Amino acid sequence: MRAAVQHETGxxxxxxxxxxxAVGFGPGKVRMRVRATGLCHSDLSAMNGVLPQPAxxxxxxxxxGEILDVGDGVTGLSQGDRVLMCWLPACGSCPSCKRGxxxxxxxxxxxxxxxxFRRSGGNPSDVFGFAGTxxxxxxxxxxxxxxVPIPDDVPYEIAALIGCGVTTGLGAALNTAKxxxxxxxxxxxxxxxxxxxxxxxxxxxxxxIIAVDPVAARREAALRxxxxxxxxxxxxxxxxQRVTAGEGFxxxxxxxxxxxxxxxxxxxxxRGGTLCVVGAGAMDDTFQVNMFxxxxxxxxxxxxxYGGADVLRSYxxxxxxxRAGRIDLEGxxxxxxxxxxxxxxxxxxxxxxxxxxxxxx
Length: 361
What we know:
By secondary structure, the protein is α/β, with parallel strands linked by helices. The chain is 29% helix and 26% strand. It is built from twelve helices and 19 strands. Strands 4, 6, 7, 10, 11, 18 and 19 form a seven-stranded mixed beta sheet that branches. The N and C termini lie close together (11 Å).
């Protein structure tokens, strides 16, 4: 089968190969035919080494498709079922799961160290899947709890986005920060996750939502999705003065994953306000606050991993909001490519021209 492979960490291009096979099928596993997958910035971060991932590997974790086969002991799933990919499934028995913090379960991360692809031919070799998945492939074998059934009225490309970016962005506003009605919000970084954060803040009833991004096209898109104003990064200080009389925003979301923008977000947050860190950054990039300001300003600093709540419930809520017309998911897909054109999708994300590119497989 075909799959897009990153041979070594740091390479900026993927190679589409046709001698890859999905391996590991057996008890508790399912084989999934991928129909659509989104390109998430986390895929780029794994490719360039910001996020740790063994290589060679197949990127992609935001996918949807249908079940081809189920292993022994699998219940609730059958051949032909339409599913989305959950890259961070909950085991249900670890301390985090027992506390109700299923999004902090580490069981799914353990899958990243086990190859779930293999290159055949004259020199067979193991190939990993990003985050234990690897949706830039025609087929993938994953644990059964990674495959979540979706209703028939949800298209594959919409389900794929719900599998990561939409759930992450909506959840940051609804679950982690718990944005209050009539509040002021700033969102720094307006790609697919940032736009979803804006939509989450709008659904919560925020009065002012300031979108901050260096790319003009993304600023224009943010206004279509609910931002009341969109500014370049060097205009944020002026927006803070105009919108909040210099006090700072009630909620500021950092959706870039860099300490520099996190510091900017901290300074844009009012005393007693909330800084929500959504972007995934590098282990050697340190965010610093001094002890006096930490004490005196009493700003809440809240990281948000995968939407900060039970992802299964978050999927259901995203679908309900989409059905009700409260959020726009179709509009997030600005580009569509075939698997053979995967490097075009990478260029679209790096340049900022795409909110989400859908790879049709």
